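Here is one chain, start to finish.
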Amino acid sequence: MQERSLNLALEAGQLLPTHVCWRVNDGYLRAIAHTKLNELFTLGIWGPGDLVDLHPLSQGLVELRALSTARVQEQQLNPNEASSLCIAQIQQMADLLQIASIRPVDARLMSLLTWLSKRFGHESSNGYIMPLNQMNLTHRQIAETTGMSRVTVTKGLSQFRQKKYLEIISGEEILTQIGLDWLESLG
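Its structure:
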């Protein structure tokens, strides 16, 4: 008898079990953990086509939530796939931890936007098209990911728009080459 895999359609904010490996068919997910002081930090962000397996972390205060409406499917992995996925997830956590430690904070915010753009967006003649609207990523969630305050994130995004590091072209948010060059110039 063939095993059936679980398929879920989620609304933004809904929780998923962390003891199951999921394939993201559509939408975006975010894993968060709570500190003992009940502060949140982001462990990872996944989008269409990605696999998520938080089972090794499910003993702690870890949540997996839909950032946007999402469709996911339970996935069974062989040991080699599980090992590769674990390495990829550790690398993503290391990337996010490194971003959260960047100083000054405007460089930290731009580093996260660059990471999101390269991971989930696509290149255009003007820079990278960022899927922030599709991701439904709020300023508060960006703040939790970067270790910044929501107010600092909001101010930073406004400044980036004024400096043309971010632009809206044809209804799409673009991380411009000017913004990428500015971040590169910081070293």
